[in-house]
Design a protein that fits this description.
This is Transcriptional regulator, NifA subfamily, Fis Family. By secondary structure, this protein is α+β, with helices and mostly antiparallel strands. The protein has 23 helices and 25 strands.
Length: 702
Amino acid sequence: MNRENVRDRLIHVIASLAEAMNRIEEPEEVLEYFLKTCMEATGADSGSIMLYDEEEQVLVTRVAIGLNKDAGGMRLRLGEGVTGWVARHVRPRLIDDTRTADDYVRIREDLLAEVAVPLINSDRMIGVLSLDSMQVGAFSKDDVTLLEIVSNLSATIFVKIADNRTLRMRDRFHRVLLEISRILPRSLSLQEFFEEVMTTTQKAFRIHRSTLFVYDRQEGLLKIVASVGSHTEDSLQVTYAPGEGITGTAFQNRQAVFIPSARSEPEFLNRMKVVNDNLDLGFFCCPIFSNQEVVGVFSIFTHKQELDPKELLEFLQILGSMISQAFAIQSLIEEETRPFVVENIRLRQELSRKYQFGNLIGRSELMQELFEKIRIIAESRSSVLLTGESGTGKELFASAIHYNSPRKDMPFIKINCAAIPENLLESELFGHKKGSFTGANADKKGKFEIADGGTIFLDEIGEMDLGLQAKLLRVLQEKEIEPVGGRSRKVDIRVIAATNANLEQLIEERRFRADLFYRLNVIQLTIPPLRERHEDILILVHHFVARYAKENSKKIEGITPQVIRLLETYDWPGNVRELENMVERAVVLSRSSTIDIDDFSEVLAHIQVSGKEKMLDLAPARKEPAATAAAESGSLEANLLPGADLDDLDGRAYDFVIGEVERRLIQYAMKRTRYTKTKAAKYLGINRNTLDKRIRELNIDY
C-alpha cells in the first residue's frame, strides 16, 4: 500500500472524526462512530473498543460491532489476550493468523486476523481498539500506522467530550435537585410527592422504574406504596422481609446499595420481573429514615448510564434524604388531621351516586333532562351541535356523548377552530402530503383521519373559514376527506360541533353556510348557563373543593354558609369555568381547614348583585380601624394593590403596576365578552395570539 493511499485514508478518517466532534455530544456515540470509521478504512469485519477501569484494573468493552452478544460484557485483565497485551505494553500488535497466537481470545471461530492499538491521551493509556478480519493477513503495517495516529486523536476527542458531558450532568443534577426542593414544601402526600419527584427525575436521567417501599410493622414486611414507570399489577404486590434480597438488606443494614448490573448480582431476587435476558439494568436501593428510624426503602432501576456511578450514587442518596423529609412531614400531618364533617361526606356520596354523568355534575331539572338526552343521543351516529355560552362545559358534554357511545374505545379528537390560524387549519383538520406546500417536509395525518372510527369535536365552529366549511360539509355528506395535495379517502367519524355564537345570525351575515348548519344541527343540545341552574352551585362547589384540595395536598373539611349564599347570588357571566377558577383560587389561598368568605377576598370586588354597584352584605369580620381607613382613603395601594405595599416594590413598581392594570383590563374584557377570546382580543384591539401570550405571562385565571 503506497504512502499516498495511507495519507488519503488518514485525511478521510480525520475529517470524519472532526465532523463527528461538532455534532456528537455523548462519549459512547463518539466511540461507536470512531470504531465504524476505522473498520471502513481498514476493511475489518468486526471490532471493539475496551476502556481501562483504573479502580478495578481491568479492560471493559464499551462498544462492539460484528461480535456476538457475549462480547458486549467482556472484561479482560491487563496482559490477558491480545487486547490485554497491548494495554499492558502500551504498543500496537498485529496478528496475521490468529490460529498461531497462543494468547488470542477467540470470540468467533471465523476471525483469522487481528490488529490492536492502544488509545492514549496525555501519555495515559485509556483503552484499546481491536479490529478483526475473516481473512489471514488482512491488515498491514500501514494499517497499524493509520490506526495509531487516529486512535490517539480519537482518545483526545473522547476525553474532551466525556469531560464536557460530566459538567453537563453535574449541572443537570443541580437543576433537578432545585426542582425537587420546590416540590417538597408544597406536597403533603408522601405518595404524590414521590411520584412527582421520580417523574421529574425520570425526565432528566435514564431511569426505568422507581418504587417506594414502607415497612409494615404488623406483618413485618416491606410493601409498595408508590411506583413510577412500567409495571404490572402483580409486581405491585411484591414484598420483602428485612434482610431479604438487595431491598431487604438495604433496609436491615441502613445503607444505600448500588449495583451496576442487576442481572449479574446473585443477591438480586428480581421479584418484580423487571430484569430479563434482553434487559439488564442498574439497581439502586436507599433506606428511608424518620427520626433516625428506618421506615422504608426506595429503589430505582436505571438504564446504562453515561455518568460516573459515584456521582449517580451521591445524587440518589440526596434524593433519599429528601424522601425521608417528606415521610417525616407526612407522619406529622397524619397525627394532626381530623375527619371531614358528616355533612361534607354525605354530599360527596350524593355527588358520586346521583348527580354525575361522566364528568358532568348537576342535580337541577335542566341538567337531569340533558343527562337523559345524552343517554339517547350517545347510541346514534348523528351529528350533534352543542350551543351555549362560554364556560358552560360544552367539551365535557361532547366527552360524555362519546364515552357513552359504541365508539367509546375509539379515538376522541378535540380541536379548537379559533385557536389555529386559518392558513394552518385545513392541514390540521385534513392533513397534507409531503411537498404540497412550502414547509410540508413530510406527510401528516389530519385530525379527521386520526379520529377514523371515533368522534371528532370541533369547538368554536362559528370561527371556521367559509372555504373550510365547504370541505367539512363534504365530510358530513360523503364521509370522505381530502388531504392537502393528496387523494380523497373514506372515513367513519361522528362529528360533534360546539359554538357560543348565534349561527343563524352568522348565516344571515353570510359568514356561515346554511347547508353546513343543517347538517350539523341534526341534534342540537343547548347547555344552560349557570345562572339558570343555581341549585347546582352547591354540589359543584363541593366537587371543585374536593378536586383542588387533593391536587394541592390541602385538608379542607367544609365550606361556610356565607360562602354558599354569596356564590348562589352571583350571576356567573363566566359560568362553570368562572366558578371553578374562583373555587380553585380560594382553596389554594385558604389558610384553614374551612373555606370562609375571607378566602374570596380577591374576587368579592368583582361580584355585583342585581346589577347594583355594591358588595353583597355577608356580615364579614370587622376590619381593624387602620385597615378600614386605608380602604376608604382611595389611596393607590388600597385600590390597586390590595394586601401589598408600593414601598416594597423599589425598582419594580412600574412593571408591577402596569402588569396589574393589564391583568385587570384583560379580566374585564374576558368577562365582558363572556370569555370568548376572539371577541375579547377584538375589544382590546390586539391580536388573538397576543392575548393568549399575555394571559400566559400574567398567569391570568378566567
